[in-house]
Each structure stands twice: as C-alpha cells, then as structure tokens.
Amino acid sequence: MGSSHDQGEPSATELTSRQRYGQHLKRLREQAGMTQTELEAPCALSGSMIAHIEAGRRVPQLRDARKFDQLLPSEGFFEAYLPTLSVVPVAEHFAGALEAEQQAIAICEYAVSLVPGLLQIPEYARSVYEAQEPNYVPAEVDKRVVNRGHRAEILKSLSSPTVWFILNENVIRAQVGGPAVMAEQLKHIAWFGRSGRVRLQVVPHKAGAHATMNSMVSLMRFADAPPLAYVEGLYTGNLIDEPAMVQKCQDAYDLARAAALPSDASLDLLESVAEDYENER
Asked: What is the pTM assigned to this prediction?
C-alpha cells in the first residue's frame, strides 16, 4: 500500500507556509471543540472564509490573526507568523485584499481620490508614497514602488481577471507628481481603456452627490468562493466577506456606475485632461 504522499497528498515539507498556517488553525480549532461556524461569530468572519484560510487559499488580516490567538491556545502563533504569509510586503491592513485580488476572476473598483494601485505608473506611485511619510527613506520608497509594479502584473497575464474601474473626477484633477507625471499617468490609463483590457468610467463633478463619494471600494469575484469587498481609509482597510454588506457595497458601486459618463466619453475626458497637463509642462 502506498503512503498518503504517494496517493497525492502533500508531505509536511511540500506544504506552503499558508497551508501550514491553515492546518495549525484547523488543528487548534478542533482541539478546542469548535466548528468553523462556531469560530465565525466571535471572529466576525464567515465560515467560508475560515475554510479558505484553513486550506491556505486566503490570508487573514491582522485583526483576525489576533482574534484567533485570543480564542485558541496558540501562544500568539497566528499574529507572530502572519508576516511570513505575504509574498509581497504591503501595509498590514491590505494584505488580505492583495491575496484576494491575485485570485479574483473579476475586480470592480471605485476610486475617490487616487489612481487605483493596479493602474499607477512608477512616478505617480513614488509621489504618493513620498507624500505619506514626512521623513521617508528613498530606498524604502523604491521597494514599495517596485512592489506596486509587481502587483499590476495581473493586468498583463493571459489569465487576467475582468477589471472595471470607476474614477471620481477628483482622481484626474489632483496633480500628483505635477503636470508631467499626470499627463503620463492619464495616458497610461487611457491606453488600458482604449485597448479593451479594462473597462473605465469617470464620475464627473457635475454628477453631484453619489453613493460612493465618501470612500473607495473594490469588489472581487472568484471562481470557487463567495465575493468580497474591500474599503480603505487613512492607514486603515477592511476586507468584507459578510454577504449582506458585500451586497450593499455592490449596490453603491452600481449607483456610482449609473452616475458615471459612458466609457467613450470617459476616455475622451482623460485624454483631454492629459493634453491640458502636457501644455502646462
């Protein structure tokens, strides 16, 4: 009789760090006599999300790891080992969203003030990072810019997700990095839109109040998991898996899409503003 390894199950040495992390969560949960459903409520996670973490398909957020440590006899394992699960170092509040983004089959994002990370050119990203730190270290900014570029690789893959961006007009009017950077940034976005790689719309200022004007939101769909929503504020972010709240985020996004210019008119606006920036050089 062959071993379990011979039958196709991975050995301990073949498991990824995420799978080992998930197996440890499952082992401690079962030792505590808890089902996934019973762990769901105190962690504010759905049972399906816990199942994905235990299978190594999802990475928990920092607050989730801390909750696991509080509820299970882990001796602080889940928070301590959380940083080892991310391939690309990012802000703690964004780690779970990055993992989901890389697995999504469809991404719909509304941007209220900044160009979405997937669309940022290096010069734009650098200006954003430098503005966030009063005493930034150039070498650290360089690393973050490179990491952001790696994240955008999903737009170039043959297995890329379907992507739809809605930009508030604020995004294209704020001169991040100055006129020259903005001209290149907007032309970069327009190229993606004209090529058909992404769907793009702009909510103009004249549209007035609309459902998502207070916050960015990213909605992600998956082939084998329920949809997720991600919202972000200053130094904070929240990955949402609760179905009713995800649906509310979807409804808000749909209302913003209804307020936006059609795709062709949005691209015309982007190119016109890019030309204006070029004339300011």
From this structure: 0.72
